[in-house]
Specification:
The complex is a heterodimer of chains A (about 260) and B (about 650). Chain A is α+β, with helices and mostly antiparallel strands. Chain A has six helices and seven strands. Helices cover about 50% and strands about 25% of the residues of chain A. The chains are: A alpha+beta (about 260), B mainly alpha (about 650).
């Protein structure tokens, strides 16, 4: 009479432990393989970080019987707390809070917690198994429609934000002294479509160099390291002028004094 | 005769026992003890899904999603300054909240249905915040925490200096979790932050619902949760990427752990959770410690058998939490007192000034820079304050009559603090304190107001006409609370996204200013001292790792650099004395008044009283200054290098 519940408990525990090991292994692989798709990273690593530590803490501490929502709340809350405390410990290591140290810490923690949890007498994982609810199509239908509306709302909003982002028309130009009688000159375009620019560099009223036919699309940039001619002396003011080629007019003028 | 109390710690004499029994017999019926496990609390999910019942969760979620779509359209209209954006936003907001509230008020729902509805409400309201700025962080505190997270990502270590949110590095839980997720997954800090806060938001609302369930029936608990969600900071402030948002999620779970876990596990795990709160956010951890201490005291005073079993757990977790919070504040985060004390001191001084007649009361809803609220929004906001105040008063009477448990008393006392939190609002300096306290006191306000709502509207209400009237009245009250809450807690200019406004926090974060900060990250040496308007400085610190300066130097406001129409000896002295290597000049500050009342710092001359924008000459003077190098320009924003001046060129 007493053996059957024990066996059932053991079966559930093994299955749960197997799931923990599988999630840990999957998370380690996904975190280390750069080619893993983004959705897979999120699907595996979010429960790995925000679920596993708290779940194992509940197991180790012998939390007893809990309802599903209390178990979920405590699992997530404990996971966040444990990560925060673990972060303080990792901070003391030379490696700090790197990807490797996080993976090592969590993997070691998982193994240690599993060993301790399995040694607890009768420490069964998670509460009673919950019977799957009967499907009611009205609920499923309305929830599906709600999901579609949420997706539509997010799509509409993100597109609106992106459109606002591109509505502002401007172009950046920079001229930064980079030591050894040289400078970094650059342009970044936020003009719509592909725009042609021209940049001139002048020492006082004397034009030193010109770059024509710089073609940039929205968000693209152009940058060049310029060795200043010997004729340009320390203390001279070097001026960069940016022109849009169509219409052909200067749009920016910036300057710096050549360091001595 | 010794009566062993539930935990076997109290002994009573025969006389005490008979007195107690006589007292208990004379008392009115007390509130029912909370369900010990969800399965005992009512019909299961299976029951909820049986035929002949409305699909309440589906309908609530559908209505909320439709409301979210309306908000998305309203936000897009606001982005193009189209008319109708604001009314449409309110319509969408109400379409999210009211159907869910109506389902709770008018239908007989299972506790699981109620919980799913709360989850839907929390999720959709969080998405309203996400849709405000779906591409990057734009709120002031978000950018402060982004800096801390970026520092952790870059250095691999905690506790780096953060020039814009000094306390943030010393409460690093949010950034620790976010950078762990970002580091392992390859997601950006922005997306990782959204995920972490999104999870926090969901657990906040479910944890509160569960907490309320321990002191009231599920329907009342759902109403209390809805009232909590109407607090001024819930929609935006506590939905942002900020330590308070995360701490507010963890704090009720500490209480839940104490209530639901076995005593030994309760102490260990409850303390672990409490430490989690302490390393997440200062104010929330102090509020939690105070709540735990009061709760422990009330358990001892109330001496209810059902709670005495938890007395040791509550007291132990309270003691551990207080000890850790004190040690943390003294040894790890002493910066906190310097961060919080001036705010409190200024508010107290301002309040004392008002009380002594030294200064007048702040004009309510005096929007800075002419970005005021429509009259109807002001009326609704004032009405919400009046309703909550009245609700707290009447709710207290109802709570006293109910003879609540110690937890109920602790919640009632928390709610009773609401009128006190309104006092600082009479001054400009105290407004922030009043706003920030909402997230805490509304935990109690929700309990008190829900006590009245469930008495006014017994479910289901469709049987009698006058009950329907009370139900509709309650819905109207909730509508006022939600609209008024946002009206009180959030600047009118920042309610929705929109075109650029100078010095208006989220409205000042546009592609120009963000691209300029990204350029600075790639081309300027990190931690360079620089100065600019408040939002340029914020972006330069958050995205470019720079060290912005403001305030005064040698008793001269640094802002004078940008407000003077010429760069004279005083201005040059500011640059040299403050060792400002770069000046960030956004010419658009001369286009309009500041959205938040000041351009550079709250203490600048004329702050909150500006009547004219900064003159054009003040922002154009830099271009002509011979000792400044203009190293970057996008037409509106220029960055000037002061190297020559600092080396004694002038």
């Amino acid at each position: 009479v007493t053996v059957v519940p024990r066996l059932r408990s053991l079966g559930r525990r093994d299955a749960a432990d197997g799931a923990v090991v599988a999630l840990t292994a999957a998370a380690t692989v996904v975190a280390l393989v750069p080619a893993a798709p983004l959705w897979l990273r999120i699907a595996v690593l979010v429960p790995f970080l925000l679920g596993l530590p708290g779940y194992l803490a509940l197991r180790v501490a012998g939390a007893g019987r809990l309802g599903v929502e209390d178990r979920v709340l405590l699992t997530v809350g404990l996971s966040i707390s444990i990560l925060a405390i673990a972060g303080l410990a990792l901070d003391r290591l030379p490696t700090g809070l790197s990807r490797g140290s996080w993976l090592a810490a969590i993997d070691v923690g998982v193994v240690a917690a599993l060993v301790v949890a399995r040694r607890r007498p009768g420490a069964a994982p998670a509460g009673r198994p919950v019977a799957p609810p009967r499907v009611r199509w009205a609920t499923v239908g309305t929830l599906a429609l709600a999901g579609a509306l949420v997706a539509a709302a997010l799509t509409v909003d993100i597109r609106g934000a992106q459109a606002q982002e591109r509505r502002e028309r401007f172009v950046e130009v920079w001229l930064v002294p980079s030591g050894n009688h040289s400078a970094v000159l650059g342009v970044r375009s936020a003009d719509p479509g592909v725009t042609r620019y021209r940049v001139t560099l002048a020492d006082g009223s004397r034009q030193v160099r010109t770059w024509s036919r710089i073609r940039l699309g929205w968000g693209e940039s152009w940058q060049v390291a310029v060795a200043l001619p010997a004729s340009v002396r320390p203390g001279d003011t070097v001026t960069a002028r940016l022109y849009r080629e169509s219409p052909r007019r200067p749009v920016r003028s910036i300057h710096f004094t050549v360091p001595g | 005769v010794c009566e062993s109390a539930e935990a076997g710690r109290h002994t009573l004499s025969v006389q005490e026992l008979s007195h107690r029994r006589a007292r208990e017999a004379a008392r009115p019926p007390v509130e029912p003890d909370p369900p010990r496990s969800p399965s005992e609390a009512g019909p299961s999910l299976r029951d909820a899904l049986t035929p002949n019942r409305i699909p309440a969760v589906g309908l609530g979620a559908l209505a909320a999603a439709a409301g979210l779509l309306v908000v998305a359209i309203a936000d897009n209209l606001a982005r193009t300054s189209s008319t109708g954006a604001r009314p449409l936003f309110w319509a969408g907001y109400m379409a999210i909240v009211l159907p869910i509230a109506a389902l709770v008020l008018f239908s007989r729902l299972t506790r699981r249905e109620l919980m799913w509805l709360m989850l839907a409400l929390g999720a959709v309201l969080y998405l309203v915040k996400v849709m405000h700025s779906p591409l990057w962080f734009t709120f002031h505190d978000e950018l402060g925490h982004l800096r801390t997270a970026a520092d952790i990502q870059q250095t691999g270590h905690l506790f780096e200096h953060n020039p814009i949110l000094r306390a943030s590095p010393f409460f690093p839980a949010l950034e620790t979790v976010t950078t762990a997720l970002a580091g392992l997954s390859g997601l950006s800090l922005f997306v990782s932050g959204l995920v972490v806060i999104g999870v926090a938001r969901l657990i906040t609302i479910v944890a509160l619902f569960r907490l309320y369930e321990f002191v009231m029936p599920p329907r009342a608990a759902a109403l209390a949760t809805i009232v909590y969600a109407s607090n001024p900071t819930f929609l935006y402030f506590d939905g942002q990427f900020s330590y308070e948002s995360l701490a507010l999620a963890l704090a009720p779970i500490v209480l839940l752990g104490i209530l639901r876990l076995a005593p030994g596990a309760g102490i260990v795990l409850g303390s672990t959770l409490a430490v989690g709160v302490i390393v997440t956010h200062h104010l929330t951890s102090y509020a939690l410690c105070a709540f735990l201490a009061v709760w422990a005291l009330l358990v001892v005073v109330a001496r209810r058998r059902s709670e005495e079993a938890r007395a040791v757990t509550i007291a132990a977790v309270a003691a551990i939490a207080i000890a850790v919070a004190v040690v943390w504040a003294l040894l790890v985060a002493p910066v906190t007192s310097g961060y919080i004390t001036p705010v409190v001191r200024n508010a107290v001084h301002a309040l004392a000034d008002v009380a002594s007649g030294g200064s007048s009361v702040k004009h309510p809803f005096q929007g800075a820079g002419g970005y005021g609220r429509p009259a109807w929004e002001r009326i609704v906001s004032l009405a919400s304050v009046a309703i909550v105040s009245l609700g707290v008063l009447v709710g207290l009477v109802a709570a006293i009559r109910r003879r609540p448990s110690a937890l109920g008393w602790a919640l009632a006392l928390t709610g009773a603090a609401y009128p006190l939190t309104l006092l600082p609002r009479l001054t400009q300096a105290g407004t922030e304190i009043s706003n920030r306290s909402s997230g805490f006191v509304f935990v109690g306000v929700g309990y008190l107001v829900a006590l009245i709502l469930v008495r006014a509207v017994p479910a289901p209400v469709h049987r009698r006409v006058h009950q329907v009237g009370w139900g509709l009245g309650s819905l109207a009250v909730l509508a006022v609370l939600f609209i008024g809450g946002v009206g009180i807690g959030w600047a009118p200019a920042a309610l929705q996204p929109g075109p650029f406004i100078p010095a208006a926090n989220s409205r000042s974060i546009d592609p120009l200013s963000r691209w300029a900060a990204i350029w600075a990250r790639n081309h300027l040496r990190p931690d360079s001292r620089l100065s600019g308007d408040v939002d340029s400085s914020l972006l330069m610190a958050a995205y470019a790792g720079q060290d912005p300066q403001s305030g005064t130097i040698s008793s001269t406001p640094v802002s004078r650099l940008f407000t003077a129409t010429r760069l004279g000896p005083v201005e040059r002295r500011i640059i040299v004395a403050d060792q400002l290597r770069y000046l960030v000049v956004d010419r658009r500050i001369s286009d309009a008044l500041p959205g938040i009342g000041f351009y550079f710092a709250p203490g600048e001359p004329g702050a909150f009283r500006h009547s004219h924008p900064i003159p054009d000459a003040a922002v154009e003077k830099f271009h002509r200054a011979p000792y400044l190098d203009e190293v970057f320009s996008d037409g509106r924003i220029s960055i000037y290098d002061t190297r020559k001046l600092l080396r004694g060129g002038r």
